[in-house]
């Protein structure tokens, strides 16, 4: 779903050089927005999007990236906090450093970018925040104590922002993908993917474009009264949670 708008907005997608973030960036480019993606490596995002280097675990790097974006296009109006990592291990074997790394990237990283983006939202008197969480944030998954905690945290963060900034024209929502085919999930062992497939009512894995469509909706004018919500894009995997 893409909608052509008369006025281009400044859209920032963290981790937009590959996977889900890249597909999200592509749909904003197609809608005619000014799109910037971040990557740590400097690897380019999709055609039509600008790329800036940023590491979401480093607030100075995040600040520098925002300054670069603002110099090009003005304040960020739509922020998609998508950058994320996994470092799976069973709880008894999980190293504290691996717990902290995942939380630092997925949850504190999202905090760093949304806090920085809020300066611009206050100037614009509007803003859209979309956090890319995961079905695992509410269903849990063995071996993902760190990841599930970080993804559940994004839901609380979106709801706190909704209450704090709702009167300033800012919405904050969550998209919770299920099993989407990307480089991240291609690394999972075959028995894990087979097991997931058997549990997904749609009986297939999702496409990055299907996640991007939900993000487009939350960023659209039509979703102006939607805040603090979670949109699952999981083929029904998390239904009932
Ligand atoms: P990928 O591994 O394909 O991409 C991850 C992206 O995050 C990359 O662009 C990477 O940048 C970026 N990133 C990682 N760490 C940092 C960091 N410290 N600073 C800045 N950028 C960083 O993942 P997916 O596309 O599969 O996942 C995207 C999001 O969707 C993640 O938050 C993930 O948890 C979530 N998700 C994915 C699901 C799936 O099935 N694929 C299911 C549910 C949720 P770089 O290339 O520079 O390393």
TrEMBL record:
Keywords: Oxidoreductase. InterPro entries: KR_dom, NAD(P)-bd_dom_sf, SDR, SDR_fam. It comes from the Bacteria. Residues 9-183 form the Ketoreductase domain. The keyword Membrane does not apply. It holds the Pfam family adh_short_C2. One of its GO terms (molecular function) is oxidoreductase activity. Belongs to the short-chain dehydrogenases/reductases (SDR) family. This is SDR family oxidoreductase. It comes from Kocuria tytonis.
């Amino acid at each position: 779903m893409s909608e052509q708008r008369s006025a281009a907005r400044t859209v920032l997608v963290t981790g937009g050089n590959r996977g889900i973030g890249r597909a999200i960036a592509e749909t904003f480019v197609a809608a005619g927005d000014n799109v910037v993606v971040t990557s740590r490596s400097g690897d380019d995002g999709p055609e039509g999007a600008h790329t800036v280097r940023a590491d979401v675990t480093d607030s100075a790097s995040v600040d520098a990236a925002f300054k670069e974006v603002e110099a090009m296009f003005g304040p960020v109006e739509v922020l998609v906090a998508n950058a994320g990592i996994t470092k799976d291990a069973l709880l008894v074997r999980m190293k504290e450093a691996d717990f902290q790394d995942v939380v630092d990237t997925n949850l504190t990283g999202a905090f760093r970018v949304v806090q920085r983006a809020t300066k611009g939202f206050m100037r614009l008197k509007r803003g859209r925040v979309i956090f890319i969480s995961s079905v695992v944030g509410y269903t849990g998954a063995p071996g993902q104590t760190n990841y599930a905690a970080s993804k559940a945290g994004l839901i609380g963060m979106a709801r706190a922002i909704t209450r704090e900034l709702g009167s300033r024209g800012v919405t904050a929502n969550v998209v919770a993908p299920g099993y989407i085919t990307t480089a991240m999930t291609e690394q999972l062992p075959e028995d894990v993917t087979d097991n997931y497939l058997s549990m997904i009512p749609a009986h297939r894995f999702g496409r990055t474009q299907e996640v991007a469509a939900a993000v487009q909706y939350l960023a659209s004018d039509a979703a102006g009264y939607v805040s603090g919500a979670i949109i699952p894009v999981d083929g029904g995997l998390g239904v009932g949670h």
